[in-house]
Amino acid sequence: MSKQLRIALITILLVVVGAVYMLISTPDYGDINADGVRLGKAAYQQGDYDEAAKWFHLAAKKGNKQAQYQFAMLYRNGKGVDRDDTQAVRWLKLAAAQHHQEAEYQLGAMLEHGRGVDRADAAAAFKWFRQAALSGHSGAQLHLALMYEKGHGVKKSDAQALDWAVKAAASDNTDAKSYLQQLLNRINAKASNGDAAAQFVLARLYERGEGLQADKNRAEQWLRQSAAKGNPAAQFHLAELLRQRKGSQSIQQAADLYLQAARQGVMQAAAKIGALYATGQGVNRDLTAAISWLKKAADAGQSQAQTNLGILLAAKHQDQQAIHWLTQAAQGGAADAQNNLAVMLALGRGAKRDLRSALQWMKKAAAADPLAQYNLGLIYLRGIGIMQNEETAAQWLQKAQASGNKQARFILGLLYDTGRGVVSNTATAQHWYGLAAEAGDTNAIYNLAVLYYGQSDFNKAFALFKRAANAGDLEAQNIVASMLQLGQGVTFDVQQALTWYSKAASHGYAPAQFNLGNLYRKGDGMEQRDDIAVNWYRKAAAQGYAPAQNALAYMVAQGRGIAANREQALQWLQKASAQGFSIAGHNLSLLRQKQSGFTLVSLEVNFQVRANILTENPFDLAHRLQIYHTPQLH
Fold this sequence. Notes:
Elements: H1 3-25, H2 36-45, H3 49-61, H4 65-77, H5 85-97, H6 101-112, H7 122-134, H8 138-150, H9 158-169, H10 174-192, H11 196-208, H12 216-228, H13 232-243, H14 248-263, H15 267-279, H16 287-299, H17 303-315, H18 319-331, H19 335-347, H20 355-365, H21 370-382, H22 390-401, H23 406-418, H24 426-438, H25 442-454, H26 458-470, H27 474-486, H28 494-506, H29 510-522, H30 530-542, H31 546-558, H32 566-578, H33 582-592, H34 612-615, H35 621-624
Helix pairs in contact: 2-3, 3-4, 4-5, 5-6, 6-7, 7-8, 8-9, 9-10, 10-11, 11-12, 12-13, 13-14, 14-15, 15-16, 15-17, 16-17, 17-18, 18-19, 19-20, 20-21, 21-22, 22-23, 23-24, 24-25, 25-26, 26-27, 27-28, 28-29, 29-30, 30-31, 31-32, 31-33, 32-33
């Protein structure tokens, strides 16, 4: 081999070996799978800033927020790249836009000092400090406190300065703790010198126990001093405190403070005083004043004021305006407004009837509102604008009853009593009826009494029927009288039976009128008076009550308490028979054949559970659905 050839081969070999070495030893910055952040940090820790910059840049271009932050800091500090604040700001903005906490903080610092931008921008800096502070960056929290104290980039506010200083100090930031103490000392001095704003700030700190030990008494003292000096915020918060207390004096003082604050433009106070005027709490009821204040607060976007204004306008039958304000509040998420709006749309009040929209609002409200939960249960129970589903109805009623809704508890009792949507269970039915009865639901008391009567537990049944009777339930009054007459669950007492029959009869309850007529006709244990018997039979018969028509026909045919009149007797029997009353048909046949032996009914009572809400047709939505009728104070 010639010398020239050997030299050429050696040269080629050296080139190949060099290429292999370079391939092995040089990082592949184009490798899409390389962990640029990890490799960049490793290079940075070894002091190889050029290498770190390359890896951070590679990952930053791929959108990695940590790499964007690290690359920005290299530009800010001039490591691995020429110092360039403009590039630093550029990459910090990209990382901050992805909610990188430290990038948000550092970007705020750059903007505050005018680095990398045309001029300092305190307002923009405040925005980024706040973003970092909200995610828990103690340095940003302290910085916000300083900005609020000085009014730098934001409106000056000692209260906000304290709030952020408290947050920063809570993270064991030594500088923040020192600053917080200094700030507290300054505000305390201001408050002691009569500064109303400082007094209010201290009151709130003592109330919440932030930065200071919680002390409700000292909080109230500072609130009262600040409110007395005309601070509207203190007036509102003191009113809120007083309203929670019992007693007419406290609510009167609260109303006065709400009014003072409202007159100074505190729209929360306007909403509250409007509701108080509407309900007559602490002030004389004044619907004109109520609507005026609620309208101001509603125009300012106060959701509860919008709801209450809608409630009042609906009560005044100004339905279109009511729909407007309820819609505003409902769109803002107010559940009570959503419920009332749904009911109005379901009934076609103030707008065209729209069951689809009504259901949508009802479902939104039902996530939190017990009335909406009850209404939704009722809608599923009866299949109003939706496929009937009694199981789903029972589930919604279960949610509604948790807030003490007695009607929901009554229906649950009825469902378990009748086996609708649930497995029939008498004990569970008694449980739900019992809870509703404790809340004063007369229908629940009545149905519970029927259950006990069916179990021959006459003592419990009588006590419950009498409770319902005392509440004015005519059917229960009739049953109480019958049980006294028969001695069921109570000592036999015709005079008391007469009293209870008379109560129900005097209010037009036909079965009681009929039973009262029977007592006077028979004279069992009392004076026998056919004329009075005829009078009560006639009242019940005039209502179309077939047993009374049959009895009246008998009295007329026999001439008892009234002049005999066969034709009138025939007419009453025909009316009763036409209703399918078989006894009357039999008596009619006897009368036509001029035979005696009339059959009469001796007692009429009904021990059936009340289930109209399951069977009512057409279903009375306006009566059955529940809405808020009076403004609510939350």
